[in-house]
Write a structure and sequence with these properties.
five-stranded antiparallel sheet, 39% strand, mainly beta, nine-stranded antiparallel sheet, 5% helix, binds alpha-D-galactopyranose, 370 residues, 2 helices, single chain
């Protein structure tokens, strides 16, 4: 009887020209994916009531796959990644990873905090990048909570970074709450506490490709809610000033194809944009539309900046899902963050975390179609 009722309502909706909305219960699945040393690594599949499916592992807190519908309802994966843990363990440019302790670069791997000079690993030319030799992207997170409710699916990961790990002071406890909502969003809540003054800049390094990872991202249309960038030197360390985007190839205040002016930017885009929010205020940072699939990605964050990176260093040597090789500009990143090299730039918003304070960040990636 129930099946007949559903069938009838589908017919009526079809006759009225409406597409029936398929809703099922959200779910969370856990499977053992492999090992890192003596630690078990799991892969979690978070599926919401619309069938949006996000896979996350506690190795590096990596988002390995995000399946969302196109305008016809076809579900495809829209992030770069691999289907085996070994591929992540063999090295990759931060695909989907949680990045810490410091997302992006610190000049020459040095900073001074409360009159002490700290020396970090130098792993990007003469600079420190994305937390050093063994950043959070390569660490094993503990799983605090994993559950699905009517409207959302939740995975809470935590990691205790020991005092002086990669050269950073303080025992730092980080918690990251991934939530897949019934509104086809991935919400990432970050929290951290330290027992000594330190610097911190957490982000997620997903590479998106809204075509379903079928071709490069140059035809995606981008809007960035940002009026200025932090121009950088040849080693990608900010000079310390803000430069207006108006009249430059960095002006995405109205929609432009990513590829339209990329030829004017040596190597492609890899720069921090200053957003328009007050400290801690959640604002929209970006909107990206892919005209063939009709997929739309809207990004929101409480962070003051976003690193827009167009996969400039991808060179086709890595092969991801479905045997696709990841060539230059095959994915784009919107890394919500504080500005690069803030520990050495007192004029930038502070990245210092003191004992007794709580670091908080929220970043949201919302998927829909148009
Ligand atoms: C960030 C950096 C880039 C590059 C990538 C990872 O986006 O700004 O320069 O290091 O991460 O390859």
């Amino acid at each position: 009887m129930k099946a007949i009722t559903i069938g009838l309502s589908v017919l009526i909706l079809a006759a009225l020209g409406c597409k029936p909305k398929q809703e099922t219960a959200s779910s969370l699945n856990e499977m053992i994916w492999g090992h890192e040393g003596d630690r078990i690594i799991n892969l979690y599949t978070l599926t919401n009531k619309n069938g949006m499916e996000v896979k996350i592992t506690n190795f590096g807190g990596i988002i390995t796959s995000v399946k969302v519908p196109d305008k016809t309802g076809a579900m495809e994966n829209v992030v770069l990644g691999f289907d085996s843990l070994k591929s992540y363990q063999s090295g990759h440019p931060y695909f989907g990873s949680l990045v810490g302790r410091y997302g992006n670069r610190i000049a020459k791997g040095k900073f001074v905090l409360n009159d002490t000079t700290y020396t970090l690993a130098v792993n990007n030319g003469e600079n420190h990048l994305h937390g050093g030799l063994k950043g959070f992207d390569k660490q094993v997170f503990s799983v605090d909570t994993a559950y699905s409710s009517r409207d959302s699916v939740v995975l809470v990961l935590s990691y205790l970074s020991a005092d002086m790990e990669e050269g950073y002071p303080g025992n730092l406890l980080v918690k990251v709450r991934y939530v897949v909502t019934g509104n086809n969003e991935i919400k990432i809540w970050y929290e951290a506490e330290t027992d000594k003054a330190t610097v911190l800049n957490l982000t997620n390094h997903s590479y998106f490709n809204l075509t379903g990872c079928k071709e490069n991202i140059l035809n995606h249309e981008l809007v960035l809610m940002a009026d200025s960038i932090t121009p950088a030197d040849t080693t990608l360390i900010p000079t310390g000033v803000l430069a207006p985007v108006a009249g430059t190839s960095f002006d995405f205040t109205s929609a432009h194809k990513i590829g339209e002016r990329i030829g004017e930017v040596p190597g492609g885009y890899d720069i921090n944009f200053k957003l328009r929010n007050k400290p801690g205020q959640l604002v929209q940072a970006a909107e990206v539309y892919e005209p063939v699939s009709g997929r739309l990605l809207q990004a929101y964050t409480t962070e003051p900046g976003v690193q827009f990176y167009t996969g400039n260093f991808l060179d086709g040597t890595l092969t991801g899902f479905n045997g696709v090789s990841y060539a230059q500009h095959f994915g784009f990143c919107l890394e919500a963050q504080h500005f690069p090299d803030s520990p050495n730039k007192p004029q930038f918003p502070t990245v210092v975390l003191n004992p007794g304070e709580k670091y908080r960040q929220l970043t949201v990636y919302r998927f829909s179609t148009r």
